[in-house]
C-alpha cells in the first residue's frame, strides 16, 4: 500500500465498516514483509501470523486523512486505475 490510492481504498473500507455497524474495524492478510509498513502507515496492529487489524481510532484517522482531503480525486483515480487494468 505504498500508493496513496491504496490508502484511500483502505479508508473507504473503514468507512463502510462504520456504516455497517462494525465501528470501523477492518482486518486483512498482509504479506509478511509488509507487516511493519502497515503498522506505520495505516495504524494497523499485527494480530498474529499475517493477520492485520485496523481498529476504530486508526480507522477514523485514515478516513479523515484520505477521504476528506482526497474525496474529489479518489473516485477519478480509482476509475483510471480500473481502466488501465482493463486495457492491459
DSSP strand count:
3
**String of helices and strands:** HEHEEH
Number of helical segments with 4 or more residues: 3
Strand order of the largest sheet: 1-3-2
The structure class reads alpha+beta
Q: What would the average pLDDT be, to the nearest integer?
A: 81
Low-confidence stretches: none
What is the global morphology? globular
What's the domain count?
1
| Beta-strand content | 5-15%
Helix residue percentage: 55-70%
Radius of gyration: 13 Å
Q: Describe it for me?
A:
There is one protein chain. This protein is α+β, with helices and mostly antiparallel strands and 88 residues long. The chain has one domain. It is 64% helix and 14% strand. The chain has 3 helices and 3 strands. The protein has a 3-stranded antiparallel β-sheet. A hairpin with a 2-residue loop joins strand 2 and strand 3 (51-54). Helix 1 crosses helix 3. It is globular and about 30 Å long. The relative contact order is 0.20.
Amino acid at each position: 500500500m505504498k500508493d496513496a490510492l491504496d490508502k484511500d481504498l483502505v479508508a473507504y473500507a473503514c468507512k463502510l465498516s462504520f456504516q455497517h455497524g462494525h465501528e470501523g474495524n477492518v482486518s486483512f492478510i498482509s504479506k509478511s514483509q509488509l507487516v511493519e509498513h502497515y503498522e506505520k502507515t495505516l495504524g494497523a496492529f499485527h494480530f498474529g501470523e499475517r493477520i492485520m487489524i485496523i481498529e476504530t481510532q486508526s480507522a477514523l484517522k485514515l478516513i479523515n486523512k484520505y477521504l476528506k482531503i482526497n474525496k474529489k480525486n479518489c473516485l477519478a483515480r480509482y476509475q483510471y486505475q480500473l481502466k488501465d487494468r482493463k486495457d492491459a
